[in-house]
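User
Class, as today's exercise, I want you to study this protein, comparing sequence with structure tokens, and judge whether sequence predicts the tokens.
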Amino acid sequence: MEEKTSNRRFISLKLKWAFGTAVGSLIIFFIVAMAMFSSFTQSLFNQERDLLNQGMTNISRQLGRINQPLTKKNISNVIDPDDGQVAVGSQYQRPIIQELSDGHLIVNIYDRKHQPILSTGKSITKPTFTNQRRVRMMRGAAHKVIVGQQPIYSQRGHRRIGYLQVENKLNVYYRNYNQLRIVVILAMCLVVLASGLLGYFLSLLFLRPLGEIHDTVKVISKDPTKNVRVPVPNHNDELAELTTMFNEMLDRMQRYIDQQSQFVSDVSHELRTPIAIIQGHLDMLERWGKDDPEVLNDSIKASLIETKRMKNLVQEMLDLSRAEQVDINFRNQRTVVNDVVHQVFNNFKMLYPDFHFTLDDDLDEPITANIYRDHLEQVLVILCDNAVKYSTERKEVHISLSRGMNTVEIGIQDFGEGIPATDIDKVFDRFYRVDKARSRKKGGNGLGLSIAKRLIEGYHGSITLESSLGAGSLFRIILPIVEDPEAL
């Protein structure tokens, strides 16, 4: 699959943008230009057609005044009453009527026997004689022409006295048509070129963050530990948001890498000591200690203690890895928070009778949260166990349960050693101990609070700490409430 992807030809997004802009502009311009071109050319054509119709009407009206069969002589009298001369041939070089002196109209007049009497130019089409007025398009030598044909009737008696055929060569129309078509084509080419260039330069401007993201990804892919980030654009748009989100993702990834490196380093350090202790005892036993019952007994006890410590460490590491996946594996779990808090409270009262445990429950009804019951119990046990572990003088632990607007809050307070302000933000880190020597004596691995934090945050809750050195600590757990668990 990767080979197929790498073998594909790379086409820059800038070129695609420029091509898309050019094609889109071409389509829009083509539609608009064709609509305007069709409208304009149709208007020109209608003008030419109206001119022919008007000419036919005027000529037939003038010739209808003759009231006798048409001849060259009586037509001449109508055309030029002051000059009785008329052109002898079939061609008549002057316009028939002064108001119809348009040179691109060809007028042909025929008598009743279909013989030509007068013509203003060489006929383009063969004459046809009809009893009704007819205007149609016909093929000419170079292009189509408009041909109008009709009989001529006398104004008195309404007798047919001849025939009229008027042809519009449409030379002006086609000349304007071709000129306009050339202008449209040139304008279309200019629009495509201008829009393509504009699209390309706009893509260079607007897609610059994508190019910087691309370069950053290439650097990160070669060296994931490199601390490079994408410059955030000044303009506030989707690309600026994408750049910000990408940088945040790189920051999280860098934190994960750092945490992973720290995790491996801490695990190696934590396991090194018990392994060295066990190896030391085994070496001693192998050399001479196995013959001394007292040394043998002490070495076995010490090795069992370190083995148990390693077992707890491995178990806590597994718990931590599972805690980071609760949103996937336990997203639909529901738990009545009141029951779990009361259960943990009663268990610790029984386990530590020398401690004074108090529970302030302000809830009037059962409250359900979106969390797996065993996970909530595990978090409460971790916090209560820490409270007991670090309360050396004042052996007292307070547990509170209350409700917010849409949340339930659990508080666990001790009055023990407390935590310095500089260490409060670090206590949830893996393997972190405020006092490593004293914590080791108490049997902790520094993973409990880290597990608790990831479990609670996995269910979209939060866990916070307030502490003062020598005055104790207060852990607060806040979880969103499920209002109607039966409906889910």
The chain has twelve helices and twelve strands. Residues 238-302 form one domain. The CA atoms of residues 109 and 164 lie 5 Å apart. The longest strand covers residues 144-153.
